[in-house]
């Protein structure tokens, strides 16, 4: 949050406009992300939250190669999440709060979750 305040001067709205759902969904060791967001294009300071709409699959990462460590897998997933805010992404120009992801990703054993052998 400190970097957001420094880079953009703070986030004026304290409301959720969408989220990514990460799931391990086979076949094989892959992670898929699905996007849900509010349908409106513009948001005012105190907007009314309508029903979130499913937008479809955002990305799919396949981890068939087994040389990656848990941190490398987490870094790849994080990079793909950040790309959703780039030009052409479904959350283009939006701010993502990755604090929870960064906090929990170091304690997750990604390799065993994905069914990969231990290094």
TrEMBL record:
Name the record gives this protein: Uncharacterized protein
Source organism per UniProt: Actinomycetospora succinea
């Amino acid at each position: 949050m400190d970097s957001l305040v420094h880079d953009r001067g703070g986030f004026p709205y304290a409301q959720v406009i969408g989220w990514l759902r990460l799931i391990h969904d086979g076949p094989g060791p892959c992670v898929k992300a699905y996007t849900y967001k509010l349908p409106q294009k513009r948001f005012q300071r105190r907007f009314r939250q309508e029903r979130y709409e499913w937008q479809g699959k955002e990305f799919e990462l396949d981890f068939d190669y087994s040389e990656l460590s848990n941190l490398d897998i987490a870094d790849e997933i994080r990079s793909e999440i950040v790309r959703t805010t780039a030009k052409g992404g479904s959350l283009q120009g939006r701010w993502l709060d990755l604090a929870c992801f960064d906090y929990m990703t170091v304690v997750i054993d990604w390799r065993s979750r994905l069914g990969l052998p231990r290094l």
